[in-house]
């Protein structure tokens, strides 16, 4: 089953992440400084628009089963995964207390699309509907047990984004009366920061993992 | 092991109670207050010995009383009419400047008339330091009674009941003054029957800065023209509201001050109309405000309140109005009392303000000081029963001055006798012709009096606020020790468990690593403890709990999905799971007969129910302290037709009744007791419905006799049926299973193998009965708006129990117990509770009580406030019944051990961690700005939560112990019979 899997080096992973980061950076420069606070809907829209093609392209290229599945099929999987993942993310956010008023609908949709890009879409592109892989992505135990390289590449930024968003929500109810405490500004900041950290960590994890495997082989 | 753990637990609880009471005693001292009102006896020197309070004199008519006071006090009242104008939240700095400098030009110009009065020496202004908590109601009490209440006085009078202590307004009323009040309705709450005319405005709508003051000023023309009143209280809230909106430097501030200045001008003009100069205008503020416009704490900005006197007795030739004239807010009480010829209120600790009494003769001045000293002396005698003035004077008479007074009593003795002796000698020298000598004697006497008064006043006020530091530290040590004991007990428990589980292969994978939910719970508790140190997080604690609880259940959801993914890949896992279903019939009905796929579906559904219900509960009350004005469902319903609320209540009652019926049906027990309990439950449900509908028909009357009797009937039926169920349920279920035993098994084997179905069924019946009756009680007592959240909390409880019972290997037991406790806390805030004492529902505490009883309504208030955590504790009884309690050795003590140790120990431990850490936080924050407004109310909640935990754990433990005892007794009897 895993025979066709191409081994991905830490360098490839880093390159892929650099591309993703470039997408974020472009969106940020297009939006201009302070845009997330003054007009969160526009900034989030820009982020989604810039980041979506990059992520879908990169992870479709890194698809798990390149033999049986074409690049376009993987990309299509990613495109379908985008709204599905957005739904799950929106559900999670609303359950955790995101406001549901009419004036928040747009930002909630954009935010969940962005979160879907960070979490769901890469996995959808790479794994398709393979249950085992989904299970391992959901699980946090990959950090302790040896797994595949893609798992690190997908899991670390994904977990980072979720954790960052979760931590980013803590200052929201406080009475500091800062504009960035509005939903979903600080949560977005947290998610992006967590995602970046995850992206930075995953090549390191991959390198460590490779060394461990090599040591075991020797 | 069980006995040791129980011993440790009991020791820990005792230690905790001891530490908590020590801390409460040290942190919130309750000062003794004198009851009753000062009367003619206050014009006599206090006698030695115990304070005689029992002297009941026939009440004099007002005119006689007034002349009696006039006679006894040996001087006529200085004024006949009083205008007390309270400008809420005005810092004295705005009028009098700071540190000897006048206020800024802009502020000077915004109060031109007042400044002209000050400059013309027609007014005397003081920086009257207010005592914390700097919120309106306690400050008004301090002004009129001269006493500083302790925090607990403030806390327990949060519902602004009528003020019963001795105070100026009642004294003025007693001698026939007619009172009129315009402004903040707090006055009406404090003095509901005192005012001849009144117009209260609510301080609730802080956003309104214009209407509140217009509603006061619109009466001014009429009242100032009217001659019938002699005391006029004006309380302007607008300036406080301006501060709350925009802070000290708000653009509205100068405008508002101009408006206030205009009111002062009008009142003063009107008082000058009666040329007898018998009107005193007093402009005071109850507290100041911070730069941001808030108040409540003890910073200089907040405590710097104004006391400004305008009248003939303060006029003098020379003055420097911007000297930093320090006084205490409580000084207002004795000053006004003596100016108006009434006795000083009994609990006053204030001291006469000298400049206000300029028009008095020297004799009269000394007399006022003497009266003030006698009153303070009476208060001192209440605090130090052994203290006696005559002994002082006798012992000191000829000896002269003691240089080093060794005790506080001696110091008082010394100061007091010095004052009285110099007063006497000035009286003796009065007849002599040497003016200068007389003035000198008077000066010495005044100085001596003030020496005593200031010292005593300071001592008394410190008695009300000082904290014995070492006592507090030792209290915290006790609590920490108790916390460690509990931790030790829990770690013992875990060690014992992991030892006993090494032989169980199915658990070995679970034991290996920390799981996400376990890590999260530990992190969550840590984050919660950290958040207690921030006043903002304490104010908005509902967010913390809601966030933590929903995250925990989201993790459960992920784990469920994960197990489903895993399960559909490899079906062999189920083999091990199937045989672990040893729960009761209820469980068998819900889970045993299910296919794996269906069971997965149920697992998913139950978690989703908890999550969605939690979100709806959260949207119901936008609680907290800072975001109260946000829209939420409860506000929507409050505006909607009452029919909608009633129908929601009806739906909730019906749903609870239906759920109970369904669960009893699943239990498959058809004994008479069960049917009886079911019928009584239905009748209770009907009573609650009746109560709801009665209220609907008759909303105009506050106390409705038919609803009271309905509620009482409910209490009676509910308590009888609950106790009947608890007592009877262990007797009605079979000890040994009669069906499942194969015929081949030998007799001895049968005896050894106790069936745990019976005991589970019995505990289940008890637990579910507890929970549903509790639910009905809550539906009866809580505000109508809370009906649906209550139902949702009940659903959450049931869903959690079902979820945990469906797959016992998914989450560890301690995770399950803590998850239920989290739900309880989230629900507590979901019912609209906050960490401010204002959110306690006082109205519900009188349902079913015809006469006022502090104990009963206190219990009801506790039941209402802690409805949700207690419901989860009662749900925990259901939970222990669906747990896998079959032990290899099948001893009753082991079963008991398995049933109760975890559900009892963990809540105690969590509560102990919260209590201990919050106590430490409170000690560290004792000088914090918000200690009285945020941290101390929260501490009362923490203490109440501790009581709630004890109650819940006690119920769980007693139920389990009773059931096990009955079953073991029955088993022994059965064995004896069969042999
Ligand atoms: Zn106030
Ligand atoms: Zn205020």
UniProtKB/TrEMBL annotation, chain A:
Keywords: Endoplasmic reticulum, GPI-anchor biosynthesis, Membrane, Transmembrane, Transmembrane helix. The keyword DNA-binding does not apply. The chain crosses the membrane at residues 43-62, 74-97, 109-130, 151-169, 189-208. GO terms for biological process: GPI anchor biosynthetic process. Pathway: Glycolipid biosynthesis; glycosylphosphatidylinositol-anchor biosynthesis. GO terms for cellular component: endoplasmic reticulum membrane. The keyword Lipid biosynthesis does not apply. Coiled coil: none annotated. It is a multi-pass membrane protein. Pfam families: PIG-F. It comes from the Eukaryota. It is found in: Endoplasmic reticulum membrane. This is Glycosylphosphatidylinositol anchor biosynthesis protein 11. It comes from Panicum hallii var. hallii.
UniProtKB/TrEMBL annotation, chain B:
It is a multi-pass membrane protein. One of its GO terms (molecular function) is CP2 mannose-ethanolamine phosphotransferase activity. It holds the Pfam family PIGO_PIGG. It is found in: Endoplasmic reticulum membrane. It comes from the Eukaryota. Keywords: Endoplasmic reticulum, Glycoprotein, GPI-anchor biosynthesis, Membrane, Transferase, Transmembrane, Transmembrane helix. Pathway: Glycolipid biosynthesis; glycosylphosphatidylinositol-anchor biosynthesis. InterPro entries: Alkaline_phosphatase_core_sf (IPR017850), Phosphodiest/P_Trfase (IPR002591), PIG-G_N (IPR037674), PIGG/GPI7 (IPR039527), PIGG/GPI7_C (IPR045687). One of its GO terms (cellular component) is endoplasmic reticulum membrane. The chain crosses the membrane at residues 469-490, 519-537, 543-561, 647-667, 674-693, 713-733, 762-781, 787-806, 859-882, 903-924, 939-969. Residues 602-962 form the GPI ethanolamine phosphate transferase 2 C-terminal domain. GO terms for biological process: GPI anchor biosynthetic process. Belongs to the PIGG/PIGN/PIGO family. PIGG subfamily. This is GPI ethanolamine phosphate transferase 2 C-terminal domain-containing protein.
């Amino acid at each position: 089953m895993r025979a066709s899997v191409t081994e991905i080096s830490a360098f490839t992973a880093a390159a892929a992440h650099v591309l993703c980061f470039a997408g974020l950076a472009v969106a940020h420069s297009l939006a201009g400084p302070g845009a997330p606070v003054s007009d969160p809907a526009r900034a989030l829209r820009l982020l989604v628009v810039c980041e979506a093609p990059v992520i879908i392209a990169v992870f479709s290229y890194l698809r798990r089963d390149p033999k049986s599945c074409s690049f376009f099929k993987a990309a299509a999987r990613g495109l379908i995964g985008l709204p599905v993942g957005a739904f799950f993310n929106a559900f999670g956010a609303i359950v955790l207390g995101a406001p549901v008023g009419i004036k928040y609908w747009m930002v909630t949709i954009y935010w969940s699309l962005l979160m879907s890009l960070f979490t769901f879409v890469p996995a959808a592109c790479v794994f398709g509907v393979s249950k085992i892989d989904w299970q391992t992505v959901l699980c946090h135990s990959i950090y302790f047990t040896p797994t595949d390289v893609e798992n690190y590449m997908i899991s670390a930024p994904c977990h980072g984004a979720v954790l960052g968003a979760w931590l980013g929500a803590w200052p929201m109810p406080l009475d500091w009366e800062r504009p960035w405490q509005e939903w979903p500004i600080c949560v977005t900041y947290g998610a992006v920061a967590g995602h970046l950290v995850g992206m930075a960590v995953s090549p390191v994890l991959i390198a460590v993992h490779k060394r461990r495997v090599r040591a075991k082989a020797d | 092991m069980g006995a040791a753990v129980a011993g440790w637990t009991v020791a820990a609880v005792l230690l905790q109670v001891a530490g908590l009471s020590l801390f409460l005693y040290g942190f919130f001292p309750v000062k003794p207050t004198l009851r009753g009102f000062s009367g003619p006896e206050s014009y006599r020197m206090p006698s030695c010995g115990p304070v005689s309070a029992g002297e009941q004199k026939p009440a004099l008519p007002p005119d006689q009383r007034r002349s009696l006071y006039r006679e006894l006090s040996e001087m006529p009242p200085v004024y006949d009419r009083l205008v007390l104008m309270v400008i809420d939240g005005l810092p004295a700095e705005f009028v009098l400047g700071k540190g000897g400098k006048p206020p800024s030009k802009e502020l000077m110009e915004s109060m031109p008339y007042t400044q002209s009065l000050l400059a013309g020496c027609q007014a005397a202004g003081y920086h009257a330091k207010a005592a914390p908590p700097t919120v309106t109601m306690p400050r008004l009490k301090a002004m009129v009674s001269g006493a500083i209440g302790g925090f607990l006085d403030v806390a327990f009078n949060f519902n602004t009941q009528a003020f019963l202590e001795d105070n100026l307004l009642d004294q003025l009323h007693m001698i026939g003054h007619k009172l009129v009040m315009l402004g903040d309705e707090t006055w009406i709450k404090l003095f509901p029957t005192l005012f001849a005319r009144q117009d209260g405005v609510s301080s609730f709508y802080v956003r309104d800065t214009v209407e509140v003051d217009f509603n006061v000023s619109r009466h001014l023309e009429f009242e100032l023209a009217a001659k019938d009143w002699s005391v006029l209280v004006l309380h302007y809230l607008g300036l406080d509201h301006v501060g709350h909106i925009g802070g000290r430097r708000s653009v509205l501030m100068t405008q508002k001050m101009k408006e206030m200045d205009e009111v002062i001008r009008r009142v003063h003009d009107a008082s000058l109309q009666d040329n007898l100069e018998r009107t005193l205008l007093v402009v005071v503020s109850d507290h100041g405000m911070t730069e941001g416009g808030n108040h409540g704490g003890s910073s200089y900005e907040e405590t710097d309140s104004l006391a400004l006197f305008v009248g003939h007795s303060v006029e003098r030739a020379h003055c420097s109005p911007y000297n930093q004239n320090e006084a205490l807010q409580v000084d207002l009480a004795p000053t006004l009392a003596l100016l108006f010829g009434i006795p000083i209120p009994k609990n006053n600790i204030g001291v006469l303000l000298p400049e206000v009494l300029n028009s008095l003769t020297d004799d009269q001045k000394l007399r006022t000081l003497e009266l003030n000293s006698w009153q303070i002396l009476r208060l001192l005698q209440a605090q130090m029963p052994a203290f006696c003035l005559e002994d002082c004077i006798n012992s000191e008479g000829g000896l002269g001055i003691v240089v080093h007074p060794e005790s506080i009593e001696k110091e008082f003795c010394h100061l007091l006798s010095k004052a009285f002796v110099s007063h006497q000698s000035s009286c003796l020298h009065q007849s002599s012709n040497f003016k200068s000598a007389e003035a000198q004697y008077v000066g010495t006497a005044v100085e001596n009096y003030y020496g005593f008064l200031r010292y005593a006043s300071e001592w008394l006020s410190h008695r009300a606020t000082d904290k014995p530091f070492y006592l507090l530290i030792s209290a915290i040590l006790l609590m920490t020790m108790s916390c460690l004991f509990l931790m030790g007990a829990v770690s013992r428990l875990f060690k014992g468990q992991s030892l006993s589980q090494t032989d169980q292969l199915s658990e070995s994978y679970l034991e290996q690593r920390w799981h996400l939910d376990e890590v999260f719970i530990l992190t969550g508790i840590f984050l919660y403890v950290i958040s207690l140190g921030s006043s903002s997080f304490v104010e908005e604690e509902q967010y913390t709990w809601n966030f933590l609880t929903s995250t925990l259940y989201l993790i459960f959801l992920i784990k469920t999905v994960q197990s489903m993914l895993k399960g559909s890949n490899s079906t062999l896992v189920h083999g091990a799971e199937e045989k672990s279903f040893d729960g009761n019939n209820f469980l068998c009905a819900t889970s045993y007969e299910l296919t794996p796929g269906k069971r997965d579906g149920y697992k998913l559904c139950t978690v989703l129910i908890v999550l969605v219900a939690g979100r709806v509960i959260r949207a119901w009350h936008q609680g907290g302290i800072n975001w109260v004005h946000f829209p939420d469902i409860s506000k929507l319903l409050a505006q909607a037709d009452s029919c909608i609320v009633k129908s929601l209540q009806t739906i909730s009652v019906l749903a609870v009744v239906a759920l109970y019926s369904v669960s009893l049906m699943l239990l498959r027990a058809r004994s008479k007791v069960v049917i009886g309990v079911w019928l009584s439950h239905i009748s209770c449900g009907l009573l609650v419905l009746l109560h709801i509908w009665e209220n609907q028909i008759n909303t105009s009357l506050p106390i409705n006799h038919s609803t009271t009797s309905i509620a009482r009937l409910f209490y009676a039926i509910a308590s009888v049926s609950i106790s009947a169920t608890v007592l009877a349920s262990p007797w009605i279920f079979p000890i040994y299973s009669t069906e499942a035993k194969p015929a081949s098994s030998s007799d001895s084997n049968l005896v050894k193998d106790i069936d745990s179905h019976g005991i589970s069924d019995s505990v289940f019946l008890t637990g579910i009965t507890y929970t549903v009756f509790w639910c009905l009680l809550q539906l009866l007592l809580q505000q109508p708006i809370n009906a649906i959240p209550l139902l949702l909390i009940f659903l959450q409880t049931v869903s959690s129990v079902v979820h945990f019972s469906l797959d016992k290997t998914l989450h560890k037991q301690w995770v399950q117990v803590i998850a239920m406790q989290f739900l309880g806390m989230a629900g507590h805030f979901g019912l609209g509770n906050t960490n401010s004492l204002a959110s306690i529902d006082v109205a519900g505490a009188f349902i079913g009580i015809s006469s006022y009883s502090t104990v009963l309504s206190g219990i009801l208030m506790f039941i209402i406030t802690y409805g949700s955590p207690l419901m989860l504790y009662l749900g925990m009884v259901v939970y222990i019944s669906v747990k896998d309690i079959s032990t290899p050795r099948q001893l009753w003590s082991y079963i008991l051990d398995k049933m109760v140790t975890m559900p009892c120990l963990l809540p105690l431990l969590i509560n102990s961690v919260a209590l201990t850490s919050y106590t430490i936080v409170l000690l560290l924050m004792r000088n914090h700005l918000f200690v009285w407004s945020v941290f101390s109310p929260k501490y009362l909640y923490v203490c109440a939560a501790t009581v709630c935990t004890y109650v819940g754990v006690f119920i769980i433990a007693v139920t389990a112990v009773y059931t096990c005892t009955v079953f073991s007794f029955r088993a022994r009897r059965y064995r004896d019979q069969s042999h």
